[in-house]
Amino acid sequence: MKTTQAIPSTERALLVGVAWKRSPRVHGIPAGTPERESLAELVELARSAGAAIAGSLFQLRDKADPATLVGRGKLDEILAEANAKDAPLIIFDSDLSPVQQRNIEEHTARRVIDRTQLILDIFARHARSREGQLQVELAQLNYMLPRLTGKGTALSRQGGKGAGGAGGAGGGGGHIGVRGPGEKKLETDRRRIRDRVSKIEKDIEGVRKQRALRREARNSVPLGTVALVGYTNAGKSTLFNALSRAEVLVSSRMFATLDPTIRALRLPSGRRVLLSDTVGFIRALPKGLLNAFRATLEEVQEAALIVHVSDVASAHNQELDVAVNKILGELGVAGRPTLHVWNKMDLLAPDERSEWQKSPVHRPEGTEPPILVSALTGAGLDELLQRIDQALPGDPVERLSLRLPLSEGRTLALVHALGHVVRSELHDSHMLLDADVPVSVARRLKLQHYSVNGTF
After folding, report:
1. Closest by alpha carbon to 297, among 327, 342, 326?
2. Residue with the larger pLDDT of the pair 151 and 52
3. What is the DSSP string of 416-443?
4. What would the pLDDT profile of 2-30 be if each residue is shown by its tens digit?
5. Residue 239 and residue 258: Cα distance in Å, rounded?
6. Is residue 198 within a helix (H) or strand (E), and if so which, with residue range?
7. Which of the four pLDDT bands, split at 50, 70 and 90, describes residue 157?
8. Which residues, at least 6 apart from 170, have a Cβ–Cβ distance to it below 8 Å?
9. What's the Rg (C-alpha) of the chain?
10. Strand 305-311 vs strand 430-438: parallel, antiparallel, or unpaired?
């Protein structure tokens, strides 16, 4: 069976971008500008996959060529450039149909992949959890299925005279033991892939149920969840580490963090919340990938507050924010309470920072000032925690006097962890406590059964 191949770390790649003259565009912006920016992003994606960039080509066309996407003349130019740059791999920034990919490979005698296959390769490198690995394999198989090719001559258990004879169930020229309707190897591969896809989907559903059980267990201790989202390479994982003191992998490569990570975080008011770091978003993320990773993004769907992290130093941050908001809309969380945080302020000069903060684009009239932070230096993190505390749905805190049996060790531990104990005293086999406890926690732990002096 044909399998997708990882990109060797030493493989040189030629990148190809294509734009359409009549595609919708903003007035005053030349045709092809967004596609050129996407090609620049493809450079970073290819480097994240371990490829060495040999060069790039760009074409502006009236419409796509059904057979080769770029047309025969441009294909000759791509072949000449690949020969000159000694590039055995060609990466297209557009999605290629199976026919286009096969025709380009035959004409150039080079391995050809498109943007989707490149992203899948990166995901495969970075998936660490079983769930992530299953999701990557599912997306790869669904991508591979329509691209299986065969000339129809390699047959397994095919009856009749030769490869394409008049055999079948009644053929008389087949060898003993192989008479029958038969099945081509290509058909066998397709059936095996479909069977594997069916099994993976069942396994993912099982993992999803396990995740739901873990989430239910977390919800038994009422902690609000804060999800960090943003474009890939915006610095989410660095910010996550700075806030939670975790040790999540930090890398300048795209999609370095694939599996979600959750840590407890204490806010300035004393409340504890769960902070979640998720996979980064990207422009033109194929729907198949979004569907495959929907389970991973369930933490975003369950969050009480979304913290949208943007790279303040990026020249294209507004366009990247549009891409993030589009994906949030597809996940059904567009109306969720959201804080917009601008990371990497350390890359701005002091005068640039001041001008940025005064700009009406970043602070419309009547709104809160923008949150500027540097996850690398720690600047602005205290303000961010304050704003998270203010933005999360309120949970009033109540002073309780409690008389808890020592046998209730779990309840005692949760009162200490989720509340603020003012006084504690051991009396016989009970612990006497005065504690400030969020009302939702007190109700979930049924502290009214242990309350004294009418404090509940």
Report:
1. 327
2. 52
3. HHHSEEEEEEEETTEEEEEEEEEHHHHH
4. 445 555 557 899 999 999 887 665 566 77
5. 16
6. helix 185-219
7. very low
8. none
9. 29
10. unpaired
SS (H, E, C) 3-63: CCCCCCCCCEEEEEEEEECCCCCCCCCCCCHHHHHHHHHHHHHHHHCCCEEEEEEEEEECC
Tokens of 43: 């450079």
Q: Does residue 187 sit in helix, strand or coil?
A: helix
| pLDDT-based confidence at residue 166 (cuts at 50, 70, 90) | very low
pLDDT of 403 over the 80 cut: yes
Q: How far is CA 147 from CA 13, 152, 450, in A?
A: 21, 15, 66
Three-state secondary-structure class, residue 359: coil
How far is it, in rounded angstroms, from Cα 345 to Cα 373?
6
Distance of CA 342 to the CA centre of its chain: 20
Task: Report the DSSP beta bridge partners of residue 401.
Answer: 434
Q: pLDDT tier at 216 (50, 70, 90 boundaries)? A: low
Cβ–Cβ under 8 Å, residues 10 and 47: no
If we measure between CA atoms, which residue out of 243, 250, 259 comes closest to residue 387? Answer: 243
Instruction: Return the HEC string of 83-148.
Output: HHHCCCEEEECCCCCHHHHHHHHHHHCCEEEEHHHHHHHHHHHHCCCHHHHHHHHHHHHHHHHHHC
- What average pLDDT score do residues 344-351 get? 89
Sign of CA dihedral 244, 250, 254, 257: negative
Give me 29's structure tokens. 């912006």
Tell me which amino acid residue 232 is. T
pTM assigned to the model:
0.69
Helices (H), 341-394: 350-358, 381-391
Report whether pLDDT(167) > 50.
no
52's CB contacts (< 8 A; 6+ apart) are 10, 11, 12, 13
DSSP lists the bridge partners of residue 397 as 438
Q: Which residue has the tokens 């009480």?
A: 304
Q: Which residues of 330-358 are buried (b: 16+ CB within 10 A; e: fewer)?
A: ebebeeeebbebbbbbbebeeeebeebee
Cα separations (Å) of 400 from 150, 329, 395, 435? 74, 42, 15, 5
Distance CA 257, CA 248 (A): 8
Alpha-carbon distance of 221 to 178, in angstroms, equals 63
